Amino acid sequence: MIAETTDLPTKYAKLVVTDDRGRYLIPDLPKANYSVWTRGYGLVDSPKVQSAPGATLDLKAVVAPSAAAAADYYPGCTGTR
To answer: Which pTM was predicted?
Structure first.
């Protein structure tokens, strides 16, 4: 899950992962309006929802139609070790 805003002096984004039940909490967000959406391996990004800190959202993750489509949204690491 990603929350992103340009309402602050610099662009701000916070990423969090869900718990085992698919719930998430984004702690310590500065007061601003945010675009919030889900993203994950094998998924298509959910539509962005406008929200503010303290709101409860119900975002739905959608499985990508193919491995190629999934890679467009959530590419693997391209660096070398």
So the answer is: 0.78
